[in-house]
Write a structure and sequence with these properties.
Layout lengths: L1 H64 L8 H9 L7 H24 L4 H22 L1
Helix pairs in contact: 1-4, 3-4
Length: about 140
């Protein structure tokens, strides 16, 4: 009977040790994952903010020199393809998607009409500038 109690006690102690080790390992993994996600989030936001700032200069120069060229949306496309947009708040994703969609729409209009309808391009660039400013403000 004493041996049975010793076996049960040792089994319980071993179970507690194993459970504790698994719990600590899982806790450490979650903590490391949160740190990595936070770092990735900060880098993505910085990358997007810099891209939108460049887009604002691009818009200003396009209107100033009447040199209408397409936008490159590869920064946002790479965020989407990598699946990292899930690290951002939903409202920010929605806002950024709206902004980059306007850029893609402008690219389509530029491709279809060329520079024939300059007024339409200027209006689109104005709308893109407004949405880009909103996005930059949201990122801050």
């Amino acid at each position: 009977m004493a041996e049975l109690i010793d076996i049960i006690t040792e089994s319980v102690i071993l179970s507690v040790i194993i459970f504790g080790a698994v719990f600590v390992e899982h806790w450490i993994y979650r903590r490391v994952q949160k740190t990595e996600d936070s770092s990735a989030r900060k880098k993505i936001i910085l990358l997007i903010k810099e891209d939108l700032t460049r887009k604002m200069r691009f818009i200003t120069e396009s209107v100033k020199y009447k040199d209408y060229k397409p936008f490159f949306t590869n920064v946002w496309d790479s965020v989407i393809i990598s699946g990292k947009q899930t690290l951002l708040p939903f409202e920010m994703i929605k806002n950024l998607e709206h902004t980059y969609s306007w850029m893609k729409y402008y690219n389509t209009e530029l491709k279809e009409q060329g520079q024939r309808n300059e007024q339409t391009l200027i209006e689109l660039l104005s709308e893109i500038k407004n949405t880009t400013e909103l996005s930059v403000d949201m990122i801050k």
